[in-house]
């Protein structure tokens, strides 16, 4: 695979393009917008609808195949698969909801939604793995930005749904069928692997701050315009202008590579000779040293092919060991590059998996049923609820990257500490939902959105720091299986059953009142309590690793850049 030379513009162009792909990859969050149409047009019960919602979560989060493929194919191939899945999956759903094709079987629609939302896994893996490798010294920040934008995608699609598509579910599905492939085709050229810088660049911090500020401005704008659309009667011209401003804000990360083009950096990196033909080789060596922050800086690090190569036969390795060419290969330690089969047998791996499972599984249950929760508690227009959740979900994802990056560098506090704190807050949130006190619905939704977003912003960089970047794609995608499994258990089986049981008591297809979800919320509070306990254990276990990573990190990286 061709790798671009270390440079100022290519990684930032790729990050700007990744923003658009992440918005497209957030199509799975549009399920609450068209789920009422699925229920009414196709005559589903609430439990049938929640099982369809589980298909939504399974497709979005089962990314084992793209995780494997990202180590074998360039990013454009991964994106090409994603756009094909999106086209065919959402196309079938559009045919059903628009009643272009009548009487499609339930299982066909279930599989179509799995296929449609699985495109998110392919697109998200392509841009996340590529950008994490392009910026290995800023993993938490990059993960927070990219996961923040995918969290904002629900608000972006809600804006388009309300202001351009006039709340038409069939038009939304047609937009997803055609729009997502167009975005991927336009952006796939720019998302490519670049050899990362050999050391920290002072301007990089400013550029990340600008990108974070631009995303925050977009989030505030989306929330404000959604509220305006709800309380005011806006004509089509004003609506189109507001959507146009949103598109301009989505393009704002391109300011960074444009600025670099107009005002190129004049300084030269130390240790570089002009015209040297070995530039790329030196940069590739630097990359191998920075992908794993704990790789020992010693003579062992120079045994490249024997340490890193996976195609060397056991006979060759034994002969090399016998002749003294290399030492016997040892198992990786925390912070080094693990293969998937090496990571999956570690206690840290499963502690992180279950802590994430309990955090996102409980949160996605509310997200999948947010429209029904709002109606049950007396809110007829649930658009603001969805936009509020999306905005706060974005804040949680972005904030998790920023805050955890600060404390991990300044205090060597593991990122999972923030997972523990937010899961404790989720206990309070679910109790607020269960109480159904007047005025608490919006506050609980906002708080849950933040806590839900933090789970993503913490899990991704933590998995790369504990198990390395080399096989990061498959490792973090396996972690993400906690989302659909949680949705199946807590949303499909628990929430759907409780809702339909209560609706049966009221002798109707719709359930009204706090009892529709009260038992579900109490169970989710207990789930969050157990998740916070697991997060606390993991934080205590890995604290020494972070003290090694970041207390000595600058020294190790400085040595790496001198080689």
Give your account of this protein's structure.
The protein has 563 residues and is mostly helical. Helices cover 73% and strands 0% of the residues. It is built from 24 helices and no strands. It has helices at 9-25, 31-42, 46-61, 64-69, 75-97, 106-134, 139-163, 169-187, 202-231, 236-250, 255-262, 279-290, 304-308, 314-322, 340-343, 347-368, 370-376, 383-410, 416-435, 441-467, 472-479, 482-505, 518-551, 553-562. It is globular. Residues 1-8, 268-312 and 553-563 have low confidence and may be disordered. Belongs to the major facilitator superfamily. Phosphate:H(+) symporter (TC 2.A.1.9) family. It holds the Pfam family NFD4_C. InterPro entries: MFS_trans_sf, NFD4_C, Nodulin-like. Keywords: Membrane, Transmembrane, Transmembrane helix.
Radius of gyration: 24 Å
What is the general shape?
A: globular
DSSP helix fraction: over 70%
Average pLDDT confidence is 80
Number of strands: 0
Distance from N terminus to C terminus (CA atoms, Å) equals 24 Å
Order of helices and strands: HHHHHHHHHHHHHHHHHHHHHHHH
- Measured by DSSP, the beta-strand proportion falls in under 5%
Helical/strand content category: mainly alpha
The helix count comes to 24
Low-confidence stretches: 1-8, 268-312, 553-563
Oligomeric description of these chains: single chain
Tell me about the largest β-sheet: none
